[in-house]
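Internal ticket - ligand job 469, adenosine monophosphate:
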Amino acid sequence: MKPLFFNIREECGIFGVFGHPEASNLTYLGLYALQHRGQEGAGICSFDGEQLYLEKSMGLVADIFSEKRLKRLPGTIAIGHNRYSTAGGSSLKNVQPLIANYAHGPIAVAHNGNLINADLIKKRLEAEGAIFQSTADSEVILHLIARSKREKRINRIIEALQEVSGAYSLLFVANNELIAARDPFGVRPLSLGMVDNAYVVASETSAFDLIGAEYIRDIQPGEIISISKNGIESIQFLKSHKKSFCIFEFIYFSRPDSYIFEHVCVNTIRNELGRQLARESHIDADIVIPVPDSGVPAAIGYSAQSGIKFDFGLIRNHYVGRTFIEPKQSIRHFGVKIKLNPVRDLLKDKSVIVVDDSIVRGTTSKKIVKMIREVGGAKEVHMRICSPPTIGPCFYGIDTPTRQELIASSHIIEEIKKYITADSLSYLSLEGLKSLVPEPQNYCTACFDNKYPIEFPDDKSIQLELSFW
Ligand code: AMP
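stdout (structure tokens):
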């Protein structure tokens, strides 16, 4: 079953600059550092004191932005966006930033997250005559801004955001102003930094490191900031009753060298996930290997805690891109093989602990176990997953399939172990996971416990998804 509403599969990275002569170049570098958050397409919109300029394409940041193209993005303000590759609905018109021209001039938006009531608002606006250019939920925000009767731009944006519901970390650029906002739950990260007296805003701090920017603080849940020549104006536009930081950012999505959610180091948490997993599900074995890259910090932690030696038993080809063409239907089963290959010398006749971040459908783990056994020659393969079983789809911007496709939503661990043909399988416990993050009550763990923190609208497609449990 495919959900009816658009954009459930939206993961993204955003970056913005205010007050720098090389705004678009810095944005290019910022997006480059955030490439892991989205590989389907990217765009940059700049403002030169008079007008907005937009360059966007499908593909990777480094392929899209040539020097020539960056020169077509003049000005001292810029915002950029990386969009995640999705199975359906991928087209240039959905690549952000999105621009709209309304009564008060042009405005551009870049959005990370997913709105859960966008379909309902869209239907209402369409019934009133609105014409939508894309299928991106973010366009709803632009329509609401255009319709607002408030005078000041920031108040129009606030009014629009008070109507939408879900996860959003947002950047806007309009006439000499950069605006950043975060939903009251703070689901996706968003940080403020500074370089050469210019302000920068990014999904993750690893983007600051590349351009030599200094981290200042996070944009707070429910906070909107306007950056202009007068400095920063901050408004708490919605009360943050319940912070719900996405715990999956720590498990898989963010880069290990980033500091997110009140400046917590992702690598440190991942290492701790591995240590906790070793404490919870120790097994005697000869070697601990990660599924690269996502399992590396946790496998190092697992090894350190268990005292079992660590090594890279699987080698990843880093150059496998979306352009890879599988020659024929008959040899389409390259799957994991094209990306990973075992090191026989390390694995032959060994009892191997394999550490990965998560199991979604189970297909990757199944192929990896088979490969380690058949090609690597391992005697035993013990799968260790440094997150709890993924039982619920994400409505807030992580690319998870529907509930039906999540193997752990309908199978017990013993059945999953059999399916992936491992000698043993253990997941990290939810309590164990929560014990590792500061103030665990501030996290969304819906994909592991079906407790969705944001109230759902009366949307049939969402109700259908939720009714599986
Ligand atoms: P699956 O084969 O469906 O079980 O996928 C599991 C693999 O997908 C794991 O190796 C994870 O590292 C990776 N993974 C987990 N969540 C995501 C996600 N949201 N987007 C892309 N890959 C993911």
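Auto-summary: Residues 287 and 309 are 5 Å apart (CA to CA). Residues 252, 291, 294, 356-365, 398-400 surround adenosine monophosphate (CB under 6 Å).
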